[in-house]
Structure formats: structure tokens, C-alpha cells
Amino acid sequence: QQHADGGGKKRVCYYYDPRISYVDYGEKHEMVPHRVAMTHGLVKSYGLLDLMDRLRVAPATKEDLLLAHSEDYLNLLRDLTPAAYDNDEATRKRAAEHRLGSVPDEGGSGCLISDNPVIEDLWDYCLRYAGGSLAAARALASGRYEIAINWSGGMHHACEDKASGFCYVNDIVVAIKALLVGRFERVLYVDIDAHHGDGVENAFLKESRVMTVSFHQYDGKKFFPRTGDVKDVGATEAMYRTLNVPLDPGTGDVRYHKLFQPIMERVMDVFRPDAVVLQCGADSLAGDRIAGLGLSVRGHGKCVRFLCGYDLPLLLLGGGGYTINHVASCWCYETAVAIGKEIPDDIPHHEYDKYYQSQGYKLHYHEADRSNGKAQTKHMAEVKQRVMEHLDQLSD
Ligand code: TV1
Ligand code: CA
Ligand code: ZN
User: Fold this and answer.
1) Cβ count near 281 (within 10 Å)
2) For tag attachment on the chain, is the N or C end more exposed, with fewer CB atoms within 10 Å?
3) What is the pLDDT of residue 220?
4) Which of 30, 159, 200 to mutate to test the pocket of ligand 1 (most atoms within 8 A of CB)?
5) Which pLDDT value is given to residue 251?
């Protein structure tokens, strides 16, 4: 089933809109869109722009976003400004109904926190990152490209009617719907962000033409968004076309791939997708500021390499990732994997190279292993077995 990629080069297109990198979630917020400018700087400095087509596109439109969201919510996103939010009580109330703006911390710290702040040029930001993912999906549907990349996309938590987890609009749902109306009968969604891909899962719970598979950190009921138990497998006609692979904090390359590879091989076998969407959230890397998984850049990139090995149209999206030098290293490496080009470990001199000082100016940085050995192995084997049983259900 898996095709040897034998160095066969693929046609790759890449979307990067510099306007996105100026977006500011607020001083202390962990989401830093500038990481995508850093990724682009690295991609450029390694000469990768010469090996793929960088395509510039118009932002998405409200009509495009209606594929994933209610009109009421989109109108709010379009009209909401920081000034209106600060000055008008009714606006604050309406925003809160859609989980926008500050809320008291549930942890009881007493301070106001805002996962989804009302920021300057919010609507423009949404249209641009979703526009990239939508154009990427259409580029695959056109047959002109085998791989399409939008590192600004991958905002997997946004719901039909609500913002969630730093995500305002769900560009992934929009892109998958565009693939379905394009020429693809079945689309596989794979999510290697450290968080559960709940927004995408929910959007396609009852859609048999889409299978969603999320690998994520899961420790009982603490880690956001607290969903993604191994027993959650979707509904009715589309039962078992939802898969969840909960992972213990500290899971590193070896353990991760003991699950990822056999599970994905089996998914490919039983679902037989016509196109694949991979959300490459880089918060699953070791040393992330929010999450606690322990992948190396090579281990993370191995997921990309593995899925590239199937000769299927592949959409690569970004997502989380909060240690921004690690994120840029990872997405640059994965861009090279998509192109099929080996790049040296030494980071070339370029405008952002000072960010990589702490990693010795090497792409492949080193982090102390935070995993706790044998304790996890038994639990992991159970998770694998449960997931494989779910896949058996799908095969008959
Ligand atoms: C402002 C300032 C917001 C500092 C949010 C970490 C902050 C977090 C902040 C943060 C933070 C979360 C919750 C809050 C439950 C909520 C892009 C109501 C130091 C895809 C989203 C994680 C992950 C949301 C997004 C999570 C993605 N963690 N500092 N907020 N309470 N929210 O736990 O999957 O990566 O952390
Ligand atoms: Ca995930
Ligand atoms: Zn995440």
C-alpha cells in the first residue's frame, strides 16, 4: 500500500501572507503569529523558495467561511473592534456569548484571561489565514500540485458559533469542505498538534466521507480542551471514522511512533482516502511553553515524511507551537521534507538568526528527555489496542 517515495520529487505550493505575522494577540499571550515570519525567513535562507511555487492569494470571503460558521458569528467577527469592546457593555456581552474577549480564569486566580482576545484587525486576520488554507485546498483539487502548505492555518478548535483555544475561524473545516466539493470522495484529517482537534472532529462527526484522527496530550481531565478520550469514535453512520489517540505527557519520538505508524498504516488501509490534510501543530515538540510532549524536530517531521510516502494529495497546515524558535525550525524542516530536499543542520545567516542562539544555531535542537520511562508503556499499549479495535470495526 505504501509507495516508496524513492526521492521522487513532488510539486509543492506554499502560501505565506506577511500581514498575518504582524497580528498581536496581546503582550503576554502565548500565540505569536510572528513565528510564521520566522519560519518563512528560515525557508528562504535555506533556498527552499526556489524549489516550490509561492502563490499569493486574495483573503477568503465571508461566503467561504459560511462553509464552517454561522452567519451571526461571522458578522460579529467582522464588526468587532477593540474600541467597541472596551467602550460598550452590550458588545462585551455579545462577544462573551461567542467566547471572545476576557473571561475570569476558571483556575480561580481572580485575574481576567483571554484565550481569544478581541484584537486589532481580527476579521482581516481570519480572512487571510483561512484564505491560505482554502487556496491550498483548491490547488490540490486542481491537480496542479501534490502538496500544498499554509503554516498560518491549522486553527483546529474554532467551532461553528464560537472561538476557542486561540482559534477564531476554522480554516481546516473550510479547506476539507473545499476538497470534498473538489474532486475528492474521501478526505483523511490527521492532527499532530499536542491538543485534541475538537473543532474539526465535531464538524465531521456524522460525515462518512471524512475521517479525523487526533494524537494529543491527555491527562485525565486537565489538559485543554479536555476531550479526545480513546473511546470517542464519532456517531451513527460515521461511527469509527473519528479516532482519538490520547498520549501521556512526556511522550517522545520512540513511543509516539510506536503508535503513529501502525495506526496510520491501518487507517490508510481501511479508509482509503483520496486526499490527506495534516495539521502540524508544533506544540508537540519537546520544550514547548504550553504542552508537555517530547517530540524532536525529526520525530515530528517523521509524521510528515510518513504521510508524504503515500502518493496522495497532501495539505500541510500549522497550528499550535509556543516556543517559537522550535516552531520555525520544525516547519522549515517539514517544508524541506515535502520538497524532498535534505537541508544542513547549520542555520544560515539571515534576518532572524538571533532567535536560534539558544539552540546553537542548529535546526535540530536538543531538549532534556522529560518522559518517565516504563510507567507509560502499559497505558500506551492499551491505547494502541483500543484504537486498532476501532479500526477493525471499520474494515468489515
Ligand atoms: C493570555 C495570556 C492567554 C497568557 C492563555 C494555555 C493565555 C494561555 C496566556 C493558555 C496561557 C490555554 C485553557 C482557559 C480553560 C482555558 C492553535 C478557561 C500560559 C492550536 C489552546 C490552549 C491551544 C488553550 C491551541 C488553553 C492549539 N493554555 N497564557 N490557554 N480556561 N486554554 O486552558 O491547539 O495549540 O498559558
Ligand atoms: Ca492533536
Ligand atoms: Zn495545540
Assistant:
1) 29
2) C
3) 77
4) 30
5) 95
Catalytic residues: 157
Say how many domains are in the chain: 1
What are the distances in angstroms from CA 359 to CA 2, 136, 206, 334? Answer: 35, 32, 45, 18
**Residue 7: predicted pLDDT:** 55
**How far is ligand 2, taken at its centre, from the CA of residue 215, in Å?**
4
Residue 102 lies in a domain: no
Separation of alpha carbons 361 and 345, rounded Å: 8
Angstrom CA distances, 297 to 165, 252, 303, 327, 366, stand at: 24, 11, 10, 9, 9
Q: What is the pLDDT of residue 395?
A: 83
Length of the chain: 396
For residue 95, tell me if it sits in a domain: no
Domain assignment present for 331: yes
Question: What is the pLDDT, as a whole number, of residue 373?
Answer: 62
The pLDDT, as a whole number, for residue 235 is: 82
User: What CATH number is attached to the domain comprising 312?
Assistant: 3.40.800.20
Tell me the mean pLDDT per 10 residues along the chain, length 396.
Answer: 61 98 96 98 98 97 98 98 97 97 74 91 98 98 98 98 98 98 96 98 96 95 94 89 96 96 98 98 98 97 98 98 98 98 98 98 89 72 96 88
* Residue with CA nearest ligand 1 atom 21: 165
Q: Are 339 and 304 in contact (CB under 8 A)?
A: no
Cell numbers placing 130 = 483561512
Ligand closest to 227 (CA) is 2
Rounded distance from Cα 102 to ligand 1 centre (Å): 12
Give me ligand 3 centre to Cα 195, in Å. 4
The pLDDT score that the predictor gives to residue 376 is 72
Does residue 254 lie within any of the structural domains? Answer: yes
Nearest-CA residue for ligand 1 atom 24 is 165
Place of cell 505527557: 249
Domain range for residue 40? 12-56+123-395
Looking from the CA of residue 29, the nearest atom of ligand 1 is 2
Q: Which ligand has the shortest distance to the CA of 215?
A: 2
Tell me which residue has its CA closest to atom 9 in ligand 1.
29
Q: Which residues have any ligand 1 atom within 6 Å of their CB?
A: 28-30, 106, 113-115, 155-157, 165-167, 193, 195, 224, 281, 283, 290, 319-320
Query: Relative to the alpha carbon of 212, which ligand is closest?
Result: 2
